[in-house]
Amino acid sequence: MAAERGARRLLSTSSFWLYCLLLLGRRTPGAAAARSGSAPQSPGASIRTFTPFYFLVEPVDTLSVRGSSVILNCSAYSEPSPKIEWKKDGTFLNLASDDRRQLLPDGSLFISNVVHSKHNKPDEGYYQCVATVESLGTIVSRTAKLTVAGLPRFTSQPEPSSVYAGNSAILNCEVNADLVPFVRWEQNRHPLLLDDRVIKLPSGMLVISNATEGDGGLYRCIVESGGPPKYSDEVELKVLPDTEVTSDLVFLKQPSPLVRVIGQDVVLPCVASGLPTPTIKWMKNEEALDTESSERLVLLAGSSLEISDVTEDDAGTYFCIADNGNETIEAQAELTVQAQPEFLKQPTNIYAHESMDIVFECEVTGKPTPTVKWVKNGDMVIPSDYFKIVKEHNLQVLGLVKSDEGFYQCIAENDVGNAQAGAQLIILEHAPATTGPLPSAPRDVVASLVSTRFIKLTWRTPASDPHGDNLTYSVFYTKEGIARERVENTSRPGEMQVTIQNLMPATVYVFRVMAQNKHGSGESSAPLRVETQPEVQLPGPAPNIRAYATSPTSITVTWETPVSGNGEIQNYKLYYMEKGTDKEQDVDVSSHSFTINGLKKYTEYSFRVVAYNKHGPGVSTQDVAVRTLSDVPSAAPQNLSLEVRNSKSIMIHWQPPAPATQNGQITGYKIRYRKASRKSDVTETLVSGTQLSQLIEGLDRGTEYNFRVAALTINGTGPATDWLSAETFESDLDETRVPEVPSSLHVRPLVTSIVVSWTPPENQNIVVRGYAIGYGIGSPHAQTIKVDYKQRYYTIENLDPSSHYVITLKAFNNVGEGIPLYESAVTRPHTVPDPTPMMPPVGVQASILSHDTIRITWADNSLPKHQKITDSRYYTVRWKTNIPANTKYKNANATTLSYLVTGLKPNTLYEFSVMVTKGRRSSTWSMTAHGTTFELVPTSPPKDVTVVSKEGKPKTIIVNWQPPSEANGKITGYIIYYSTDVNAEIHDWVIEPVVGNRLTHQIQELTLDTPYYFKIQARNSKGMGPMSEAVQFRTPKGSNSPHGSPTSPLDSNMLLVIIVSVGVITIVVVVIIAVFCTRRTTSHQKKKRAACKSVNGSHKYKGNSKDVKPPDLWIHHERLELKPIDKSPDPNPIMTDTPIPRNSQDITPVDNSMDSNIHQRRNSYRGHESEDSMSTLAGRRGMRPKMMMPFDSQPPQPVISAHPIHSLDHPHHHFHSSSLASPARSHLYHPGSPWPIGTSMSLSDRANSTESVRNTPSTDTMPASSSQTCCTDHQDPEGATSSSYLASSQEEDSGQSLPTAHVRPSHPLKSFAVPAVPPPGPPTYDPALPSTPLLSQQALNHHIHSVKTASIGTLGRSRPPMPVVVPSAPEVQETTRMLEDSESSYEPDELTKEMAHLEGLMKDLNAITTA
After folding, report:
1. Which residues touch 952 (CB under 8 Å, ≥6 apart)?
2. 229 near 251, Cβ under 8 Å?
3. Rounded CA gap, 1007 and 1320, in Å?
4. How far is the C-alpha of 506 from the C-alpha of 870, rounded, in Å?
5. 693 forms bridges with which residues in the sheet?
6. Displacement of CA 1014 from its chain's centroid (Å)
7. CA distance linking residue 844 with residue 824, whole number of Å
8. Distance CA 1030, CA 1036 (A)
9. 954: closest CA among 1037, 1043, 1046?
């Protein structure tokens, strides 16, 4: 930088002296010496001036023919006159010994008798003029190409043809391009005169339009290129008389892609033939070309387009459209316009001193983009350490030496041409020192810091000037052994250090320092030799990097090991980026190739590779670009629309698929259509990829058609659009008269515009081609605008405010315009612009107060310093959150400098801004402030809770869910609750914690074929959120259940009918038997009552076999399974050591051998034996070992609770049956004993109890009366029997295992108990029985649910062992004795009461069977 500033100062001084010299040069003979480069004397110093040296004329590209003469012009200006030489193909020509080439006096090259043959072309090539002035230097001209036309050769010749009068005809005559200017035509051996109707195209082709009889004859083309003329074949052109027979419209000649240079002329040929005779129209980029009013656009022979003096704006796609009324065809061609290199900035002359750095600037433009090279005194400048190309085109010269003087030229070149511009460099001598002392050499020059690429030098002041405050210093340095020295100046006086940068590693440099004062430069310090440090040997670029597409979504990149680098290559990093984006991605690779997958289809990517060794990353390779392969389009075309043209044609329009879904170059579109009434008859049409509409003709009148379009690439057909329907007209619309008046016209005035809307004419049978809108102030005829027939509104712009406009609307077609419809409107007045806006508030801050409140504060610079509001201004606070993105701003007004924003969402980032309003003046919005509200517990449960069974593991389920919609913070975990009873208290549900933000969880070892209920609760740092709704899931059945396959619905219905029928018959038999019982004595009854009392007193349940209570009768509409009930022989099981049964397979069925001791088996269900049974069952129903819950010292015992219905007097007892299953009221306790008394179990309860149900915590149980045991376990068996008992006993007699009814009820009417016939006497109904209060309490406290679940166990609680009474069906012998005993057990009054009970039972049976 210091060197550049010094150069600028020197240049400005030199320019001043040069200006003075030029003024003197006009009056004194010394001017010639100044222009010639001598050193004129001046009072200050010797100043050299720039010498004008440039080309007046440069050679241009020339076309010649063999044997002719050629002059390549060249002339240069300089004083003295320059010496002119010529180069051909880069080599100087020896013109002294050349008899055919000679140098003309002005410097031009003359070539006589051009030589050109197939194997000898000495004159053809590139020529360059070289001008030299010995004392100045050398300059070179632009290069010029000399082309010699070859021998005439016809690539195509005219052929005989015929043409109808009025039509067009073409005759080919194509020769090599160099000879086209030498082609002419003859008709009947006479030269053919060309005019507007008969033209010759640039290719040599003859075009005759609007043929007449006189155009008939013999035609031939001639090539005259200096030698004997070359004739083509002579052919005849026949002109046929016009006929009314139509012929197909075809192109005889279509336009083809052309490349032209700015300033040239271009002809786009287009010739069509057909009957009727077609007319030709041209379009460019879908805009019609006006060839009539344009001076540069001309239609040749009525069809071909000529463009004169081509410009860059003329580039584009041109469409030639031929139309003869019956059909329309079109062709297209691309015109590319190129430009020769031009200089935007030319190099300028430079003064400099030795050791300085300079830059020649050169900026060029052109199409294609030109390349730039530099020439010094006619020789190519080769880039090196001291000659560098910077900023693409500029030349930088470092460390100038005297030999660098001369002329430098910037030469720009592209495919079209080349150009040159030059400048002179003068190296000035240092001015002699003025009178005064010069500083001595700086002392103690040392390298205080040496790195790989820079060195920092420091020194002390010269001995001659110990203070050195006004001294500046120059540091000269060079590579050891190199004469070219560079200089670096200090940035300010008195500074004694400088950092030399951009050095080479491990290179020896020589430094010296000189001091300067106002008198000049002093002595140089002794040379200091310093070697830069060696650079860490990082890997070089990986050679031979290549990338190629392997599929539409993958690219493979390969490379080789870098040749440079110290140390083994550890790995590579492959960088890639989609073209057009700035996001680069990378991947680590250990080999020399890698395939990147998941890329976008038919998309260009760039790749580069960087090698790594132990020192770090090396040099990156150059980017290589490759495009993924194409594929079929992944989306259908867009915006499909149908336009019914008439009764037999429909126009279909569409747009290409979105660019991201095209997956390649669209090569065409496939149109499929069919009649709506015939789905299978499909017609298919293919159109080109550039066509976005198609007219479908030949359709039936008044018929509905379906259309769909699909895009094609070279890979195949993409998805098609949905079917779109349109119906052809019943009859063609009328266009023999003008349209009728539009049915309505509405106007809406604005300030400078009026919105006009309308509806079409009521008569839809007349063709409407469009609408004409006329408007003006006071008159509608000032201006007229025409719009398409489909348009229904238009906005008239650029109107005057507060003006009265009259508007007219007319529909028109090809016949003319219809009747107008008038309307008037007055535009609104122009509003006065608002005054100067106020300054916005500043210092906006957001202070978070809670989860839904943020305080906004700000300052107002337009207020006094004390910030007190004394006027009527107010502030508007607005805020929004970016989630969701389309959230609108909310606003609130405030009259103070703060505002409390409430009602915000928890844990949400808000942005706030403020504006101030005073009267009609408002400020812009202030800078935004941001604040995030505090977290809050989730206020919504997790969403979309689903439960699925894990494949292959029926005992394992997977729970999935989505986060709550109102998480109000970061979710830190979830809690899954599940139970077999949806009505259980929440602390009785099993808990599964889920840590983190996982959205799925597995639960294992569940019971097969069991319904479970699941709830999920989310938590964050503030606490737990609400639970989700319970989701039910039934685990699948086991594949090898011992109970057989489920009963089919048909068998279940049959079984239900049989059970009900047998039950009714049994009740009738009981009634008949009861009649005979009335005649018995009461002594037998007293015995039974005494037995009942004894049982109540003992609490040991040691009664005889008649004490067994039969199971409840359950009726289900789907299926009835019988399952055995097991009594474990283990008298004292331990719950935690027993395997956990998960299904009915874990309970052993009753063996046939047990039939031998029926009495013993009946007693096993009561007393101490039932305690053993319960203990065993409890052991088998233990908790899941997975649940890590705190336990009391005594292991909890599972409790099987079943709820009998103790009385059928309640008219709606069956509606509470499902509520009895709730574990909250599942245990009845004797008030005088700590042991809970197990009530009798219904068949469904026992069925459910055989399956393992999760142990859940139970609520406190209700105390029960001691008399309940008699009423349930002793009294009921005597009171009634059912057909199920008989069925069970019959199965046992036949040697089958005793099953229990296994029912899956799904109806609220769950069960009913067999009514017990009460024995006479007071103990029959004890008022202390809790059965009725239990029923009523549960009916009030619980909702009715459709699933009855047995509650098993008490999770996390200590409970004493509980005896469970599990009644079994009695044997046949026992049942017979029970029937015999019942004969004398009823009094007449009691029988009457019992009959009432039976009637109620019959009603219940009817209700169940009906349901």
Report:
1. none
2. no
3. 47
4. 75
5. 653
6. 37
7. 52
8. 19
9. 1037
The answer to whether 756 touches 794, Cβ cutoff 8 Å, is yes
Check residue 7 and give left, alpha or beta (phi > 0: left; psi -120 to 50: alpha). alpha
User: Which structure tokens are listed for 1021?
Assistant: 């740092």
The top-scoring range by mean pLDDT among 482-491, 1279-1288, 1308-1317, 1335-1344 is: 482-491
Pairing of strands 593-596, 350-353: unpaired
Question: For residues 364 and 142, what is the distance between their CA atoms, to the nearest angstrom?
Answer: 15
Give CA–CA dist 405/352, Å, rounded.
9
List C-alpha distances in Å: 1275 to 261, 504, 1393. Answer: 119, 114, 16
CA gap 761, 813 in Å, rounded: 13
Strand partners, 260: 337
Contact 124, 116 (CB under 8 A): yes
Tell me the C-alpha distance between 957 and 1031, whole Å: 13
Alpha-carbon gap, residue 1076 to 1382, rounded angstroms: 10
What's the token pair of residue 75? 């002339």
Nearest to 1221 by CA among 1238, 1242, 1203, 1246: 1203
* Cα–Cα–Cα angle for 1236, 1240, 1242, rounded to 5 degrees: 135
Residue with tokens 């018959």: 1065
Q: Which residue has the tokens 């031998």?
A: 1156
Q: Which one, of 478, 541, 540, lies nearest residue 504 by Cα? A: 478
How far apart are the C-alpha atoms of 1037 and 1144, rounded to whole Å? Answer: 10
**Four-CA torsion 629, 633, 639, 641, nearest 10 degrees:** 130
Helix ranges restricted to H, 322-413: none
Q: What share of the chain is helix, strand, coil (3-state, %, to 5)?
A: 15, 35, 50
Token pair in block for residue 807: 């508007």
The sign of the torsion formed by the CA atoms of 1326, 1331, 1335, 1341 equals positive
User: Which pair of tokens denotes residue 841?
Assistant: 């508030």
**Beta-sheet strands, E only, within 778-833:** 783-788, 793-796, 804-812, 821-826
Each residue's pLDDT tens digit, 893-952? 999 999 999 999 999 999 999 999 988 888 999 999 999 999 999 999 999 999 999 888
Joined together, the tokens standing for residue 1321 give 């006497």
pLDDT at 1039: 53
Would you mind telling me the total number of residues written for the chain in this entry? 1411
Cα–Cα distance, 228 to 66 (Å, whole number) = 12
State if pTM tops 0.85. no
Among residues 1315, 1240, 1326, the alpha carbon closest in space to that of 1279 is found at 1315
d(CA 454, CA 511): 13
Q: Rounded CA gap, 404 and 1234, in Å?
A: 119
Dihedral over alpha carbons 289, 291, 293, 298 (to 10 degrees): 140
Tokens of 870: 């004394």
Gap between the Cα atoms of 474 and 513, Å rounded: 6
Mind giving me the DSSP string for 466-521? Answer: SS-TT-EEEEEEEETT----EEEE-SSTT--EEEE-SPPTT-EEEEEEEEEETTEE
Are 1078 and 1208 contacting, i.e. CB atoms less than 8 angstroms apart?
no
- CB contact at 8 A, 129 and 55: yes
962-996: pLDDT as tens digits: 999 888 889 999 999 999 999 999 888 999 999 98
Residue 818: strand, helix, or coil: coil
Alpha helix ranges (H) inside 674-731: none
Can you give the pLDDT at residue 186? 86
Q: How far apart, in Å, are the Cα atoms of 280 and each of 268, 273, 323, 474, 1406?
A: 12, 10, 7, 77, 93
Task: Please give the Cα distance from 1138 to 1174 (Å, whole number).
Answer: 14
HEC secondary structure over 367-409:
ECCCEEEEEECCEECCCCCCEEEECCCEEEECCCCHHHCEEEE
> Alpha-carbon distance 925 to 916, whole Å?
8
- H/E stretch holding 669 reads strand 668-675
**End-to-end alpha carbon distance in the chain:** 103
